[in-house]
Every structure is written in structure tokens, then in C-alpha cells.
Amino acid sequence: MDKLEIIGGSPLSGQVRISGAKNAALPILTASLLADSPVILENIPHLNDVTTTVKLLRWVGAGITFHDGVQLEVDPSGISRFEAPYELVKTMRASVLVLGPLLSRYGQADVSLPGGCAIGARPVNIHVNGLRSMGADVTIDNGYIRARAKQLRGSRLVLDTVTVTGTENLIMAAVLAKGESVIENAAKEPEIVDLVEVLSKMGAVIEGAGTEKIRIQGVESLKGIEHSILPDRIESSTFLVAAAITGGCITIKRTRTEHLKAVLDKLNEAGGKITTGNDWVKLDMSGQRPQAVDIITAPYPGFPTDMQAQFCALNSVASGNAKITETIFENRFQHALELQRLGADIIIDGNTAISCGVRRLKGAPVMATDLRASASLVLAGLAAEGTTTVDRIYHIDRGYECIEEKLSQLGAEIRRLPS
Ligand code: EPU
Predict the structure, then answer these.
(1) The 3-state secondary structure of 85-121, one letter per residue
(2) N or C terminus of the chain: which is more exposed, having fewer CB within 10 Å?
(3) How many whole angstroms from 327 Cα to the centroid of ligand 1?
């Protein structure tokens, strides 16, 4: 297994270009199964989760062509399998996103149950119950969700919990259902708005994306389109924390500033001097140690759970005490134990991490347990004295494109040690 070796201590400086958003690319790739003709996507990030999704699309029979390494074309005309097998779902839970498209377009979908994962139980009951309300016959059998429906019918769906992929699956099911669907308590993440933009270009009739009530009028068919994936707000935010934790000054480019508000507010509170344009953000710490910040994670537009681990790393070296409360996932503090190995003073009390910042972390071998935990360990390594090696780095390759190249470009001493 590859490792990352980081020699910490250098303040980051320079500019870095943000990639397309993983969590928009995955549902948009599966949405292409709904179309009658090819879908052409740009700004698709080179990530392991994208590779897994492309494998899944190929497995169900979609034609995949890369044009000049810039565009990815999905031709859905040859779909002949209606299944997401365990082998693919077990490496990436987002495979469940084929459930809605396969069922609404082809009347059947057998998707392996994702099961729990490192950060929590992550059930899919809301996806399943929503499809049942739309008239689908759904059984759970031999570890598979088996869904059947000749024609889904529109329905009013009130989601018990705000769920991102649940909202996406149900929107993708509703676009080809008969009649109107209304999703209440829908997730409002920018990735949902990007997915809805794609579906609308294809011919779907959807109102209210980005609000808690989404109204969808089912249509007969959808057509192929071209689309460029929105920039990744979590990658954007992770680089800004990298600058803050090292006392550096960087500019992130090709981002969407309006999606970063909750994180920028916290970075400002931490002492970062922030200047912004529409598609760039500059953060300057002027060599200062950050101030510790209290955080409570919440669905968008609240503070993202996907940035919680990175702020735990920031608080570890910040001046003062702070509390970070995780409200979305029940087991998302595994990075705290690894940060302790670098000398962080953090204790976990239920769903809260209480930290007392230390002046310097000390490099040590640590192990990544999930994608965002691995990002937090890399950030901590950048701030630590001496050498940190982060093991099980395959987690980071699921969600950060060329992380070591981009960090090196900003002056970090980081290299990949192949297994
Ligand atoms: N939930 C249920 N029942 C359901 C679905 C969700 O109880 O049927 C609960 C979950 O257990 C959790 C909460 O609802 O407590 C929210 O989970 P959500 O469904 O929103 O998470 P997700 O859709 O599986 C997406 C992202 C995650 C991100 C979360 C929260 C994708 C592919 N994944 O997951 O991204 O953390 O939303 O914002 O969009 C990551 O990129 O590292 C990552 C984990």
C-alpha cells in the first residue's frame, strides 16, 4: 500500500487550481444512464471513486469514451444489466446512486446493500422508502436491494433526515415517473443543484433545487447533453486549511466562492486574511499561528462534515481550546486518535472533540481510516516538525486529485512512497 511522506514545517505559498467535485461527478455520471443519447462531461476529476463509477457504468453496458483526456462521454444506448454488484459497491457506497436511474428508466435495479462504513452505519432506508412511495416493489434479499416498477408514479416524499445521495436518488427516480413528485426536507448541497442542472438540460422539469422543497414533473424521456462539473468545495476548503495550518499564503483558483461561506467564516475566525473573487480565494496567515475555532457540523449551508477532520487538525496546533461537534455521522473522529500520535491534545466526549492547541506537532507514522481523515493527517503532517508518514493513502486517492503534486507546487515537502 502506498504511503505519503511529509516533512513538515514549510508555510505553503502560491496558487493551486481546484478540480471538479467528486460528489457532483458521481451522481451526474449515474444520471447519464437516464438519457437516450450520449452525455458528454468535462471537469471530471481523476479519482478512484470516479474510476469505480466508470467501471460500474461499463458493467451495466454503457459505452465510455475519453476524448483527449478532457471529456468523458457516456453512451447509455447499450444498457443490458441492471445490477450494482457487491464487488463494486463495497469499495464505494455512492454506487447506490444507480438505484434511482436504473429503476426509473429500465424498471428494475438490483443494488448490493452498501453496509456500514468507517464513519458510521449509513443506512439507505430513506432511498428505499421513497422508491416504495413511488410505487416500486422493493425487497432486501441476499444483501441486495431488489427494486421493480413498470412505471414509477409521482409522490410526495417527506424525508425523515436530510440525505444527500438519498435526495439525488429520488430526484433521478422522479424525473421519468408519471406525474408530479415533491421532495420535502431535501438536501440543499451545491452538488444537488449541479445534478439538477444536468437533468434539466436533458429535458427534466424540476423546480426548487437548492431549497428544502423540490418539485419534479415526470417526463417521457431525456436526451444527451454536455456539462462541466462544478468545482470541488471540499478540495477548495482543504487547501485553504493547508495554508492556515502552515501559516502560509495561497490562492485557490477555479473554485466557486459562494459555496465556501461556512468554511471561510471559520477560517476568518481562525485569523486568516481572506480576499475573494467569483472563482478564486486568497488566504493569508502572515506566518501567524491560527486561533482555535468551535464548530458544529450541519447539512449545507451549515459547516460541512467533510471538513470536520481537517479543522480538528487545525485546532490541534491553534492557540486556545475548542470544541468540534459532529452531528451527521456517529463515528467520524477516528483521525483524532491518529492526531494524538503526532502530539495533539484532543479528547473525544460523545460526538464532540475537545482540543487544547499545542505549539508544534511532532512527525510520526500514522494511518488513514477514511477519505477526510486522511486529508486531516496530511495537513497535520504539513504543520508537524520532522517526518510524518501517512499509511493507507488509497483513501485520499478516492477524493483528492494529485494531492501530492498540488501540495508540492505550493512548496510542501511531500512524496509518495510506493508499496
Ligand atoms: N441517513 C439515513 N437514512 C438514509 C440515508 C441517510 O438515516 O437512507 C443518515 C445517515 O446515516 C447520516 C445522514 O443521514 O447520518 C446524512 O447522510 P447522507 O445520506 O447525506 O450521506 P451520503 O449521501 O451517504 C454524502 C457524501 C458524503 C458526505 C455526506 C454528508 C456523496 C457521494 N457522499 O453522503 O461525502 O459526507 O453526504 O454531507 O455525495 C466524502 O466525500 O468524504 C463523503 C463521505
Answers:
(1) CHHHHCCCHHHHHHHHHHHHHHCEEEEECCCCECCEC
(2) C
(3) 12
CA distance 275 to 227: 29
Nearest of 251, 250, 254 to residue 229 by alpha carbon: 254
User: Is the CB of residue 126 below 6 angstroms from any atom belonging to ligand 1?
Assistant: yes
Is the four-CA dihedral 101, 104, 109, 111 of positive or negative sign? Answer: positive
Instruction: Write the CB contacts of 58 (distance below 8 Å, at least 6 apart in sequence).
Output: 64
User: Could you give the CA distance from residue 61 to residue 98 in angstroms, rounded to a whole number?
Assistant: 13
Assigned C-alpha cell, 167: 435526495
344 Cα to the center of ligand 1, angstroms: 28
Atom number in ligand 1 closest to CA 125: 8
- Is the N-terminal amide bond of 76 cis, ω within 30° of 0? no
- Ligand 1 near 400 CB (within 6 A): no
Is 117 known to be catalytic? Answer: yes
Q: Which of 117, 249, 312, 356 is catalytic?
A: 117
What's the CA-to-centroid distance between 259 and ligand 1, angstroms?
A: 18
Q: Would you say the CB of residue 408 lies under 6 angstroms from ligand 1? A: no
Q: Are 374 and 341 in contact (CB under 8 A)?
A: no
Residue 123 in contact with ligand 1 by CB distance below 6 A? yes
Q: Which amino acid is at 239?
A: F
Quick count: other Cβ atoms within 10 Å of Cβ 135? 15
Span from the CA of 106 to the centroid of ligand 1 (angstroms): 26
Ligand 1 within 6 A of CB of 386: no
pTM of the predicted structure, to 2 decimals = 0.98
Taking the C-alpha atoms of residue 255 and residue 233, their distance in angstroms, rounded to an integer, is: 7
Per-residue pLDDT of the chain (419 residues; tens, 9 = 90+): 899 999 999 999 999 999 999 999 999 999 999 999 999 999 999 999 999 999 999 999 999 999 987 899 999 999 999 999 999 889 899 999 999 999 999 999 999 998 667 888 889 999 999 999 999 999 999 999 999 999 999 999 999 999 999 999 999 999 999 999 999 999 999 999 999 999 999 999 999 999 999 999 999 999 999 999 999 999 999 999 999 999 999 999 999 999 999 999 999 999 999 999 999 999 999 999 999 999 999 999 999 999 999 999 999 999 999 999 999 999 999 999 999 999 999 999 999 999 999 999 999 999 999 999 999 999 999 999 999 999 999 899 999 999 999 999 999 999 999 88
